[in-house]
Structure to design on (439 residues):
């Protein structure tokens, strides 16, 4: 059995994505967890593939627990003993480093919804999730926010602390009973925006996922490198990348950009150039500016402080879909885009920037209305497939007349990027994030 950590309410989207590779377990799983059995042996994790097979790197799962086993016991000590019985053989068998993640399912849940995406009151393009509660009251069609359809979640007090104690006792059992093998234990690395945000291929990851006070899912698996960068196992417990709260930005949208920096393994540095398409009200622009980057923000609406007036900001009134960076500035170091639009327009924008090689790194959100249209994500994967001459054809069907010249031609032949992934991040709503970099 494999277990997948998913944003509550998107279990069906994950099931559709994994159809053909996994079959769902008949037993009901709690919100945020999807359980399935492989339709074929290790083909979903080991071996070469097209660089983006959903079973190896699902868009809608932030963490995988391969070959997970459920154990139950009434006490911390007995839970640790049960977990030890599951992992001891795997830890003993391989002469390779291992690390441990012990966490509660509730710790993987994304932040409580703060409101739906909507256009800025002044006509801006950026998701305006401001630091007030008025956004919680309206949705795109004036109805209740779409996030209210997610299953109810009830946190169990102290569950995270309890599973942490189980993890510590498990390590003590391994230290005392498997001394030679325990020498390979490595504590989780401090999180940054670089190499520390990756699980090294070959590292064995032991995961203890607390379902309630007396039940755990236990998994031990070797991290497998993905052909388009990163590994199939997330370096953060439950796939929850750490995001520090910052009250300075004018919207909460900065949180998903901070999370995206962890997933892409890089962040803007002093002097690097960024283009922020749909920049108002300024949360993403400020997130890059505070790192010393030089930001060109393109939007129909002005930006708010602290981005507005920043000496590193160039604010342009314009169309995000037709904007092209000046020839003297190509390629820019970062393309940042969080525009509210149909998925087809975002995909065409990505294809255009890829073909023209206008940037070295990109973070672009693709937004959806309702639970339809996720099939378009297959076209995004195709854009980044190496030496795939059909990628432009896939992108062409999304192109619009106002997308600009070359919006979908030749993207694949020019897209030999080292890292390319598509993920629904914890801070994404009904949207996913495209993350790509050349090196």
């Amino acid at each position: 059995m494999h277990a997948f950590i998913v944003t509550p309410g998107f279990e069906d989207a994950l099931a559709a994505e994994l159809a053909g590779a996994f079959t769902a377990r008949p037993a009901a799983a709690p919100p945020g967890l999807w359980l399935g059995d492989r339709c074929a042996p290790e083909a979903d994790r080991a071996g070469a593939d097209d660089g983006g097979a959903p079973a190896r790197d699902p868009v809608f799962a932030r963490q995988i627990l391969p070959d997970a086993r459920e154990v139950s016991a009434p006490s911390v000590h007995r839970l640790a003993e049960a977990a030890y019985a599951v992992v001891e053989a795997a830890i003993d068998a391989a002469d390779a480093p291992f690390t441990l993640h012990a966490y509660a399912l509730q710790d993987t849940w994304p932040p409580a919804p703060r409101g739906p995406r909507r256009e800025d009151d002044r006509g801006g393009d950026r998701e305006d999730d401001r630091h007030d509660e008025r956004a919680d009251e309206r949705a795109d069609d004036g109805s209740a926010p779409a996030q209210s359809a997610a299953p109810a979640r009830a946190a169990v007090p102290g569950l995270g602390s309890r599973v942490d104690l189980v993890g510590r006792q498990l390590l003590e059992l391994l230290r005392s009973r498997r001394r030679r093998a325990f020498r390979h234990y490595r504590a989780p690395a401090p999180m940054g925006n670089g190499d520390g945000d990756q699980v090294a291929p070959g590292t064995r990851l032991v995961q203890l996922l607390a379902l309630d006070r007396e039940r755990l899912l236990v998994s031990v698996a070797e991290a497998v490198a993905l052909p388009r960068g990163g590994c199939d196992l997330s370096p953060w417990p439950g796939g929850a990348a750490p995001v520090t709260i910052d009250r300075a930005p004018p919207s909460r949208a900065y949180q998903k950009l901070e999370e995206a920096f962890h997933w892409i393994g890089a962040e803007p540095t002093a002097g690097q150039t960024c283009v922020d398409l749909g920049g108002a009200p300024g949360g993403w622009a400020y997130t890059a500016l505070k790192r010393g980057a030089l930001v060109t923000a393109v939007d129909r609406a002005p930006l708010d402080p602290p981005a507005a007036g920043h000496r590193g900001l160039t604010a342009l009134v314009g169309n995000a879909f037709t904007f092209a960076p000046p020839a003297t500035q190509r390629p820019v170091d970062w393309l940042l885009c969080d525009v509210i639009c149909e998925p087809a327009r975002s995909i065409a924008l990505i294809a255009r920037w890829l073909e023209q090689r206008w940037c070295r790194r990109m973070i672009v959100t693709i937004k959806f209305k309702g639970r339809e249209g996720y099939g378009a994500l297959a076209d995004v994967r195709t854009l980044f497939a190496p030496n795939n001459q059909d990628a432009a054809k896939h992108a062409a069907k999304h192109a619009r007349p106002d997308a600009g010249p070359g919006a979908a031609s030749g993207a694949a032949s020019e897209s030999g990027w080292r890292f390319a992934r598509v993920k629904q991040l914890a801070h994404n709503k009904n949207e996913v994030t495209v993350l790509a970099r050349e090196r």
Q: What stands out?
A: The first strand starts at residue 2 and ends at 5. The chain has two domains: 2-109+152-239, 254-437. The mean pLDDT is 83.
